[in-house]
Design brief:
The protein has 221 residues and is an alpha/beta fold. The chain is built from six helices and eight strands. The protein has two domains: 14-44; 54-220, 3-Layer(aba) Sandwich (Lysozyme-like), CATH 3.40.80. The longest helix is centred in the C-terminal third of the chain and has 18 residues, at 160-177. It is globular.
Length: 221
Amino acid sequence: MGARRASKDTDRRIGRRALIVGGVAAAAGSAVLARDELGRLWWRVPGVEKPRKDGEVDYTGARWVAASDANWRRADRPDDYGIEMVVVHVTQGSFDSAVKAFQDPSHGAASHYIVRKDGHISQMIRELDVAYHAGNRDYNERSVGIEHAGFVDRPQDFTDEMYEASARLTARICARYDIPVDREHIIGHVEVPGTDHTDPGPHWDWDRYMRLVRQARTAKA
C-alpha cells in the first residue's frame, strides 16, 4: 500500500516557493528556469483552475470513490508533470480496508486506483493529480498508482479477474500518456527508490501481467 505520513509528499507551500524561484530566476536572468516554473505553477494562481466534474473518472470501467484530499495534491498532469510510469501495489488488506484508509486524512497516502479480486475497479484520485502512493516525491509526480486488494504472501488473492482488469487499466493508461509497455515503465512499489515496501511481492506474476497488458494495449491500438 502507499507509504504512510512519514514518507508522504509534503511540498504544499508552493506559493512562497514560486515567488522565491521566480525572483531568483529574474535576478539570474534564467529564462529557462522561469519558463519551467511558470509552466508548472501558472494554473495555481487564484481564480485559475482546470475544469473538473465531480465524480468524473479517467477510466470508463472504474467507479469513483473519492480519497481524502489530505492524501493527494492537486496538479495539472501531464502538462506540469509528465506521466511516465505505472506503479503496481498490493494493499496488504481487503478492498474495503484500503478504501477506508485512503479516505482517512491521517493515513497520509492513497493511490489513484484500487482493483478488487473480482475485477471491480475504484478510482479515488484523478490521474491529473499527484497521489501520495510511492513514498518518493519524484515518482509520485510522474506515475499513476494502482493498488490490488490482497496480501503479498497469498498468491490466491491475485485472481484471473484481477490480473485481467488491472492489465486493461494499465494498458489504457499507457495508451493515454504514450508510456512504453515494459518493466522499466510498469514497476512494483518495491522498485521505487527509497521505499521500504515489498509489494507486489514474489507471487505477483509479472510475465503474465505484462503479457496481458501488451494484449490489451494492442487491442486498444
